[in-house]
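Forum: Protein Structure Q&A
Topic: Joint prediction for protein chains with partners

I've read a bunch of threads here and the consensus seems to be that you should model interacting components together rather than docking separate models afterwards. I'd like to see that in practice. Below is the full input, 456 residues plus whatever partners are listed. Could one of the regulars post the assembled result?
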Amino acid sequence: MLQFFTCVSHIAFFGVIAMKLISTRHQSPEVDFKEALFQGLAPDGGLYRPAEDKSILDLFRGFKPTVPFNEIAEKVSNLWLRDEWDNASVTRIVERAFDFAPELRALGGGVFVLELFHGPSSAFKDFGACFLASCMEEVLKEKKRHAVVLVATSGDTGSAVARAFYKKKNIDVVILYPSGRVSAPQEKQLTTLDGNIAALEVKGSFDDCQRMVKEAFRDPELVEKLTLTSANSINIGRLFPQSFYYIDGAARLHESNAECVVFCVPSGNFGNLTAGVYAWKWGLPVGEFIAATNVNDVVPEYLKTSAFTPRPSVQTLSNAMDVGNPSNFERLTAVFKGNHRAMVQVIKGQVVTDEETKAAMREVYAAKDVFLDPHTAVGYVAARRYLAEPVNHGRKVIVLATAHPAKFLEIVEEATGKKPHLPSNLKKALSLPKKSVLVENTLDALKEFLGKHFGV
Ligand SMILES: *Cc1c(COP(=O)(O)O)cnc(C)c1O
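Posted by a regular:
Agreed with the consensus. Here's the joint model:
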């Protein structure tokens, strides 16, 4: 049996240039970070990823368990972005992005949760969305330009983006959501901000909203006139900052230096896990990653069989993870150069059912007085199962807590018999009147709105 749990080693070339990004499909020219921010997807349809790795190991060694999150965010950003922004700009970007931080909580038996839901929309997507918004604001100020962010949402992404861009200068946001198909609290989070955030309630489905956004981006006149840009989850400006909280979580457990922590990541599109794997690639001492999914398990299945077979998603309690064809899988395999065996050494799959998810919510509440949202509960079950294997005894697992339990009030109440308290931002959104514009599900309707709203 293993005496010491050593980190899986890897060979990386640590370059000296700033963040250069290449497409996972290698058919597009290299771009810098500022450019990739506004492009989202690479022209060849691939995803941008860092062309080289940088070592964060020296930085990491200097982080005490009490280090403020913003200091980690600043130092890591400086390392990557110093050719594009001076120190003062990086500090400004970080300060404007994060007025919230992760919180680590011990649940006993070697399991910890890293709460990532203390931001403006009460979900981990706030880290990515707020950093992206802050970077875009900085670039637009430098270039004295104005841009319009156009997003289609089925709920969660839209609220994180809306809150992140709220009151940002030189940027307006237009959110399209399907009428009657997002939950009431989600709708309130989308529609109660004023100022630079407009919510379009589309008479149609989420697919209609996505189609309208795609059609708008194919209209060169519109794109040019408004400087249309997107803010979806494949944007490197959202992925990069997600590496910060892995470094933060590992630093909090720094005392136990000899060991390498294990991260357990409740996953859907696999952006979150990819960001963690990047941090590991840059030298963060991580033992292993657990890829925890609900029954939408194409990635755990790939880890087991080496066959990647996307299929239609099925509905579960952890609905933000109901993904049948994870978009970031392309980035994840690129890290391992497509080598299945290399990936399996570092990432372990776990699949969790709705029944197990509910039982975990009940159990943790009864034993610890702690509410878990259904996504975090999937991670918790996966972590416990992992630690029950003899080879993993004594390890420490940090489960990423991806959403505030109050965002999934009914499910949590059904499982535990109790209602979690609403965080103040959610409470406030619920008390405000909904403001949205009802539109038909056509590009013409969208163009008419944009024309009136922006006077073009
Ligand atoms: C988006 C989301 C996930 C899945 O994250 P990915 O990066 O898509 O894997 C998990 N939990 C919650 C609450 C989410 O909103």
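Residues 123, 125, 156, 266-272, 320-321, 375, 402-403 surround pyridoxal-5'-phosphate (CB under 6 Å).
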